[in-house]
Amino acid sequence: MKAKAFQKIYTRIENITKATCVVEAEGITNEEMAYVDGRPAQVVKINDKWITLQIFPGTQGVATNAEVVFTGKPPTLKVGDDLRGRFFNAYGQPIDGGPAIDGEEREIGGPSVNPVRRKQPSELIATGIAGIDLNNTLVTGQKIPFFADPDQPFNQVMADVALRAKADIIILGGMGMSNDDYLYYKSVFDNAGALDRIISFMNTTENPPVERLLVPDMCLTAAEYFATEKNYKVLALLTDMTLFADALSIVSNRMDQIPSKDSMPGSLYSDLAKIYEKAVQFPDGGSITIVAVTTLSGGDITHAIPDNTGYITEGQLFLRRDTDIGKVIVDPFRSLSRLKQLVIGKKTRDDHPQVMNACVRLFADAANAKTKLENGFDLTDYDKRCLDYAKEYSRELLAIDINVDVDKMLDTGWDLFAKYFSKEEVGIKQVFVDKYWKN
Amino acid sequence: MSTKGKVVGIVSNLVTIEVDGPVGQNEICYIDLAGVKLMAEVIKITGNKAFVQVFESTRGLNVGCEAEFTGRMLEVTMGPGMLSRNYDGLQNDLNKMTDVFLKRGEYTPPLDNERKWAFKPIASEGDEVRGGDWIGEVQEGWIAHKIMVPFAFEGTGTIQSVAPEGEYTVEDTVAVVVDGEGNEQKLTMTMRWPVKVEVRTYKDKPRPFKVMETGVRTIDTLNPMMEGGTGFIPGPFGCGKTVLQHLISKYAEADLIIVVACGERANEVVEIFTEFPELDDPRTGRKLMERTIIICNTSNMPVAAREASVYTGMTIAEYYRMMGLKVLLLADSTSRWAQALREMSNRMEELPGQDAFPMDLPAIVSNFYSRAGFVYLHNGQSGSITFIGTVSPAGGNLKEPVTESTKKAARAFYALAQQRADSKRYPAIDPIDSYSKYLEYQEVVDYMDEHLEKGWVDKVLKMKDILLRGKEARDQINILGDDGVPIDYHVIFNKSEIVDFIILQQDGFDKVDASTPIKRQQYIANKILDICDSSFDFENFENVTTYFKKVINIMKQMNYQEFQNEKFNSLEKELDDLLAERRVNGDGGPGEDRKETVLDERRSGDEG
């Protein structure tokens, strides 16, 4: 980055830590971007004329006489229709060899939506995955993470969701993504011929971790552009938010802040909320929906990152390997979509809520029967039927490789009921039984 | 001349200002950022440096920006026209902001200065008055909004004149009062009050003694809330804290509901915005919105204003309490408020307490809860603020600072249990861990004796025992197996299941079941106690469960029916017949005793 003619260059750095440096300068504004020895940096603290800069790529090799240039503005992204189909780094610069974007320059991390101007989310997002559409229906304007252990195939599921969801634009934010996964996404989107609907901001494991902090804001600034200017339905995929939070803790640690639970900064809740709350249904029809990934450590959801996330997001999706059928399923017990009642039975067929509940209840009975079996107790006839039902339910509906529409899912549900149970055992409201029961 | 200053330091929203004159702790100042005024509050002073927390984003602020101090603390402006409004944490009217996005430095007036109100005088010339006394009233929606002498009025004064009945704006003078020192003070319909100071212009604040119905059975029957009481609801995410609070806000017997959405999801507030104008208030038949004020600072709005929002809500509640109204204040969630305190404490580099929260967190929390209460006014009327806050404990662990601090301050504790939520037993309030200290108050016992029935509190305690014993029996059954325990254990367990299914569980989405009047709750409780006091005859344990499932099913159907309608009565008949089938004749007393002995032996056996 070359300094422009009118910019003042500072060359006296007072103090350098692993991630920050302090330089003496005047007229500097809070949160503005700067370049230290050509490396992007941001103002994080001002104490009279002592300016603390957070250097995103780290400070290795920065000398006390390095050139410091201030840009006079906070981090920005150039937005425009040209963003479609492009891959960018955390600073919004193209990494796909294409030309720079020529568009309106917007500050990232802009203001929040006035709560009274929001609309209640009411449009279903179909993914074809029954574990989601049937049991944990997604709604436009919702924010929901996958809580998954690192060994689970969440990247595949995310890619499926992205390709099948009927969104106008899909924005992928990769934080600490391995290069292999990055290439996976790229090839999946390419093969599906969907590239023109997709915009990606990538921070891979090859890039410095602190850069990740810019990725969600970059994604959501682009998302806001499409949702407000073009009234598009935008789907933002953020993976992996745990690595984002880890970067937060690195920065707060370098700035000598006192850590709270699990060495996370005390502001973790607000920091995450600022990102997730960008999910919104705008009054003019545009919307931003956020599907994120929060990787867990050994399934522990009491850790500060998933815990704070759970308080912010509108539900969570759990993946689990079902050994009975040898496939990964969306766990119906631990997963939850808080907004599903806004659409199920209203935007979908009227029997949706009842079928969904009955299916899960019978699956729970099967789980109890399984415990009984493992403890060496005798099984009743009902228990045995439940176990058979569970296998088929798992294979035909919960498995993540399912791709059917909601009506078909409901029909499959009725098929299973009739195959294994009596009407009384299913316990669905009589009107629906009369209408849909398969003899 | 007001004090001025210049910005010399910035870390996030903590700004250091070098001042040229006196500044006060908690004083409000405005920082000028290229014409946009950013509101901030002084939170620490060292020499000529004031540390202020800015209620907005500080992006773009630089050293040298000018600040002007107002000489006042953070205040709310109160008067007719607050009902049904949606305010942010600093009492800006959100509906008056036209943009989809919030604009930094946009402050909108909380009241409508143009609107005329029909004023009717209450006090007359020559009356001796003090702060909080009623001068007149205007009709604000369905509330007779009292126009009061400002709370800040010191000592007593004499009314020199009161405006005659007529139409006035909130800025017009409606009375002139001569204070103790002979100065004339012109009073309008508005007054200002600093939010962090309690309004104490009432006469007396006795212990709460009147029950406040919420319509939620597990609260009203088992752990009742009082008018002027305090309670809190802790629970991990996904247990239904917000749903429960919404339920309470819909059906509680209060004149006015103030909902503080403090650092929570925006879509949840949108739900209130969307539903409350449509829903009917079951008591008045008006729309719920007409008795509601929303203070909204969602999680993505500036953190410092989040801290202010709970105080803003409380102060508005105190204002309406002084009119002799029953106010219910709900805050969701107080943990977010505590986190806002933590963020600031952290930036000021204070030595931290547990989990990096400030050391004085327990004091701040109890101080806030103490502002609720039942009061007698000087004119003999009474008013109350009932405060129920939710707490979002980190990791669902109740041994964390916010829950513990709140536990010391609040008198009723409604613990939401993950296990109950997982098994869809809603509301997920754990009947054994939860408590209401008010059941220990003699005033409350007397009140219940008089208004409900003699010995009511004893009945409540008995029901709690049934639940506890049921839990113990279930534990034994789980350890020893269904046929490894005496049949009595199954009976004890199933009796507790009746209490669980019929009283504790309630369908918040059913028209009838969503809210149960206290008289009906009394009927249900007596019916269940009657069953629990009876002995039943069973051949084997399988029959026990089947039989009680039938009992529960009938009683559940009854809960869905209008009280004592035809269907209800026929179900009751069906229930009585079913009970008669297996009830053992004679009194159930000895049978009960026997069962207890069995359990007691078991327990002592375990200890040995």
Write structural notes for this entry:
The complex is a heterodimer of chains A (439) and B (608). In chain A, the strands form four sheets. In chain A, strands 9, 13, 14, 15, 16, 17, 18, 19, 20 and 21 form a ten-stranded mixed beta sheet that branches. Chain A is 32% helix and 23% strand. Chain A has helices spanning 130-133, 154-164, 179-191, 215-229, 241-254, 268-276, 304-312, 352-374, 381-398, 406-420, 423-426, 430-436, and strands at 9-10, 13-16, 20-24, 33-36, 39-47, 50-55, 68-70, 76-79, 87-88, 104-107, 124-125, 138-139, 143-148, 169-177, 198-204, 233-239, 280-281, 287-295, 315-322, 327-330, 336-337. Chain A is elongated. In chain A, helix 8 (352-374) crosses helix 9, helix 8 (352-374) crosses helix 10 (406-420) and helix 9 runs antiparallel to helix 10. The mean pLDDT of chain A is 91. Chain A has three domains: 9-70, Elongation Factor Tu (Ef-tu), domain 3, CATH 2.40.30; 76-107 and 140-313, Rossmann fold (3-Layer(aba) Sandwich); 352-436, no CATH class. The longest helix of chain A is centred in the C-terminal third of the chain and has 23 residues, at 352-374. Chain A has 439 residues and is α/β, with parallel strands linked by helices. With 608 residues, chain B is α+β, with helices and mostly antiparallel strands. Chain B has four domains: 4-73, Thrombin, subunit H (Beta Barrel); 117-189, RNA polymerase II/Efflux pump adaptor protein, barrel-sandwich hybrid domain (OB fold (Dihydrolipoamide Acetyltransferase, E2P)); 217-439, 3-Layer(aba) Sandwich (Rossmann fold); 456-607, Bovine Mitochondrial F1-ATPase, ATP Synthase Beta Chain, Chain D, domain3 (Orthogonal Bundle), CATH 1.10.1140.10. The longest helix of chain B is centred in the C-terminal third of the chain and has 25 residues, at 456-480. The radius of gyration of chain B is 28 Å and the shape is globular. The interface between A and B is large, with 60 and 58 residues.
